[in-house]
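Figure 2 data, in text form.
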Amino acid sequence: MTGPTARDDILRRIRTALGDQHEPAAPIPRHYNGADQGDGAPPSPGSPIAALLADRISEYRAVVRRCEPAQVAGEVAAALEARGARRVVVPDGLYRPWLYLIDEGIELVPDDPMLSADELDTVDAVLTGCAVAVAETGTVVLDGSTGQGRRALTLVPDYHLVVVPAERIVPSVPAAVAALDPTRPLTWISGPSATSDIELDRVEGVHGPRNLEVIVAGW
């Protein structure tokens, strides 16, 4: 003979709420995931957390490049060259060593004075850092701080190239929430912008860039 089912429990709670019975229902267990407790050290070379992040990002049809931190400038230059980008928006405070191998023919466009939406629509790419990246979900989070720029910079251009240093990778969403400042404008990016209608026809680029490329700087 089987024990009480979920249906039995639901009906018991309804009867209790209606006052038809006085036996209180059993408490619902609520064991929520919290921020991971670690030693606070960034992922080391070869850490599985960086590999997991790269795998999850690629599942969203984004392009992933992995390299050592010292090789980021070369990967940035190679990504822009492969894309054929000639005008690239660079937010204020972006880490300058990432830029030193970019071809001299590529124009680095600052957001000062602030670029209009029409001006952003004419550039080929935007290059940013990030606040954190979530390995478990393959999500990159921007908070508009130094090296990331305002939200429009990463929503209007059709191609977003983002660098994720190893020390910015966290294992889970709770860990990311704990690391972020909730008062800042947060943009959570899980792959290129895409949506589907009721017939499941996929449309890309509706709410942001159609093309996302991520450099994970921690092998």
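Caption note: The first strand starts at residue 63 and ends at 67.
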